[in-house]
Design goal:
By secondary structure, this protein is of the alpha/beta class. It has a domain of about 230 residues: Spore Coat Polysaccharide Biosynthesis Protein SpsA, Chain A. Helix 1 packs across helix 10, helix 6 crosses helix 12 and helix 9 packs across helix 13. The relative contact order is 0.12.
Length: about 400
């Protein structure tokens, strides 16, 4: 067996392992996907909304929170991080109209969402503290269907299903598919206590747990990942309410999308570096979440390297054989050289593709969206065969920037 075959088999094994794992979790728990608990009591809750130059969306976000049917929502602290547009004026106008809304402004621009979040958290006195991005819109019943999970004293945080709000451009439609798959995967990971992120569009934390970890790490570019790992390291459970939907605005051009994803990847690298000593230790964080993160990246990078190697090798061989054929006046290919025997590596590749397509289809079905039209096959195939190819490239760029220290929020 040559080295490439060995690498390919190892790659296939890891890919099969995680695909089978997700499918088995789904089969075992499919009847529980949309379950949520009603709160045993009216837990007091405050929501913090970090805002920087969001004059187009901040009013809609505040209105969406005010429309929540959860009666325990006491305050909405909207923190303007010294915006240069009309955001703060809009926030103050909303605060004047609605007693629940409190307008805050940081003493100076923190330059990151985590800074504004931590500043707003200082004013929260309720049992629970939630966070919503300034361009995100929770559904009316989302918060109510999340709070009941705190009936379990071991639950430190609860997250929701994040979906894409605007889908006019093709890149937004691809992200809409991506977000559904991510949300569905996150719910499945919740069944094995391995949720690794509580995304910014909507997350609720037990305030005592939030304070015990010191709030968000302002040095990390993905504070929502880091704080989740911190919670898990301290023994808290993280839950997800699949019926709780929040719609968020995503990048509508490649430049903004690329910048966002680089930030996400660098933040992930920072988090892995911070918690690397927990590898194979400290419960599910070290025994599954950290290895899962690392192996996911290995799969992506290995797949890209194999593809690049085969393409370059094929191109070189084709060039040399063509040159030789022209010079010697011989045929490039004869019928005797055609091999129609099935290749085990091709079989593994087709099986991985089939399982990936199946998982994608299941994820899209379980998003249960009525607000938007169903995704077209062209969009799904573009996501599978073009969009996902960018992931390893983004990761390589992210590692380079991380090593060079060339990154900011």
């Amino acid at each position: 067996m040559d080295w490439l075959t060995g690498v390919y088999l190892a790659y296939s094994f890891i890919a099969f392992y995680f695909l089978f794992l997700f499918i088995l979790i789904y089969i075992q728990n499919r009847s529980k996907l949309y379950e949520y608990e009603e709160p045993k009591r009216n837990y007091s809750l405050s929501i913090v909304v970090p805002c920087y130059n969001e004059e187009k969306s901040i009013e809609g976000t505040i209105k969406a929170l005010l429309n929540s049917d959860y009666k325990g929502l006491k305050k909405i602290f909207v923190v303007d991080d010294c915006s240069t547009d009309n955001s703060y004026k809009i926030i103050k106008k909303m605060a004047a109209r609605h007693p629940k809304v409190v307008a805050l402004r940081t003493p100076k621009n923190t330059g990151k969402a985590s800074g504004a979040k931590n500043y707003g958290a200082k004013f929260v006195k309720t049992e629970l503290i939630g966070f919503t991005d300034a361009d995100s819109y929770p559904k009316k019943d989302s918060i109510r269907k999340m709070v009941g999970f705190f009936n379990d004293s071991q639950v430190g945080a609860v997250t929701a299903m994040v979906l894409v709000k605007k889908r006019d451009k093709f890149i937004e439609k691809l992200q809409a598919i991506e977000y559904k798959i991510i949300a569905f995967s996150r719910k499945l990971l919740g069944f094995i206590d391995s949720i690794y992120v509580t995304p910014g569009p909507l997350a609720i934390y037990r305030k005592s747990a939030f304070d015990s970890v010191g709030g968000f790490d302002e040095k990390n570019l993905t504070e929502d990942i880091e704080i989740t790992w911190h919670f898990v390291a301290k023994g808290y459970k993280i839950k997800m309410s699949l019926p709780s939907k929040v719609y968020t605005v995503v990048p509508d051009n490649l430049k903004t999308w690329f910048k966002q994803r680089i930030r996400w990847n660098i933040g992930g690298i920072q988090t892995i570096n911070k918690y690397k000593k927990t590898f194979m230790k400290v419960g599910m964080l070290g025994k599954f979440i950290l290895p899962f993160f690392v192996f996911s990246w290995i799969i992506g990078l290995t797949g890209l390297l194999i593809l690049a190697y085969r393409f370059i090798r094929s191109a070189i061989v084709q060039y040399l054989s063509t040159t030789y054929s022209i010079q010697t006046h011989t045929a490039i290919l004869t019928l005797r050289e055609i091999n129609l025997t099935p290749n085990i590596l091709v079989f593994f590749g087709l099986m991985t593709l089939f399982m990936s397509l199946s998982f994608t289809a299941i994820s899209l079905i379980h998003s249960r969206e009525k607000e938007f039209k169903k995704h077209k096959w062209f969009e799904i195939l573009s996501y599978m065969f073009a969009y996902l190819l960018a992931y390893p490239i983004l990761l390589i760029v992210s590692f380079y920037k991380f090593i060079k220290g060339k990154y900011s929020w």
